Amino acid sequence: MRWLAEVHVALKSGIADPEGQTIAAALRSLGYASVGDVRSGKLLRIGFDADDPPTAEATVAEMCRRLLANPVTETATWELRADEQQDAEPAMPS
Amino acid sequence: MTALVAARPRVAVVVFPGTWSERDFLHVAQSVLGWEAWTVWHTATDLGSPDAVVLPGGFAHGDHLRTGAIARFSPVMGPVEAFAAAGGPVIGSCNGFQVLTEAGMLPGALMRNDHLEFRCDWQWLRVEHPASAAAWLGDLADGEAIRLPISHGEGRYVADAATLDALEAGGRVVLRYADSAGDVTSAANPNGSERGIAGIVNERGNVLGLMPHPERAAEAEVGGTDGLRLFRSLERWLQHQPAAAERRL
Hints:
Order of helices and strands of chain B: EHEEHEHEEHEEHEEEHH
Distance between the termini of chain B: 11 Å
Number of helices of chain A: 2
Shape of chain A: elongated
Largest sheet of chain A: 3 strands, antiparallel
Radius of gyration of chain B: 16 Å
Low-confidence stretches of chain B: none
Helix content of chain B: 10-25%
Strand content of chain B: 15-25%
Helix content of chain A: 25-40%
Shape of chain B: globular
Radius of gyration of chain A: 17 Å
Mean pLDDT of chain A: 92
Strand order of the largest sheet of chain B: 2-1-3-4-11-10-9-6-7
Number of helices of chain B: 7
Strand content of chain A: 25-35%
Oligomer: heterodimer
Number of strands of chain A: 3
Structural class of chain B: alpha/beta
Mean pLDDT of chain B: 94
């Protein structure tokens, strides 16, 4: 069956995030004075096939370990659901 | 056997889709030094029996996901890792350094410059523990300042404190960003690298990763020749090694 994984790749705490700092400064300069830390990251939406939920879960974990996150600097978390649309691209409003 | 390498070093220069510094390496090796040098496409599984392997700069596979993240899975990396495991000298410059860290051949990672800007400039570097990377830095002196171009947006070296301490303790930090006097200062650090690290070597001493571009500083006409000294170091080092074919046995 078809699955859709939404993988969030984030920098580990303690890893400097100059992009996040720049975004935070921009938000403050727009008047959002209460903005504190901003951390940047990536969202990866991945459609794939797996026979059952445990296999799907294990497959995403393996994808993250082998490629999607660098364990030196990043962590990965994900949400997984059956994808009846068979389409990793969210439908555009018409 | 004590047979020595032929007078002309043989260098394989790996090319991924998006690599852009391979021609400069070929030019220096072939035209400036008269060596044998050739490119190896990333899908190849045979390096062609080189004495040394170069991973040049560029944007391998578009640097998508992370710099070097896709390149590490290119078929050519199997033979490159085997060559390094057998003690063969490997240099990764700029994107090549990023590929080496992603492949786990060197520790740490290279991240977005702290100021978020791309930096293309001449940069002074302090040489440390050149004997730790004798194949590439053997002709250089401990503590001397050399000047090489840098050209990167993602050169900020990052590793956890334990890894950094182990690198320092092992004499494996071999190049640091410095001023013209060789002093390592935060003002001289072009990207926010931890401890000013510009280049490190693996434990065995044969795999060197550095953000600067030695191949762009090999002729006076282009502004400097300090980079040529890395090539000369390799040539001298190879003269004292068993031939590559024997080394692999």
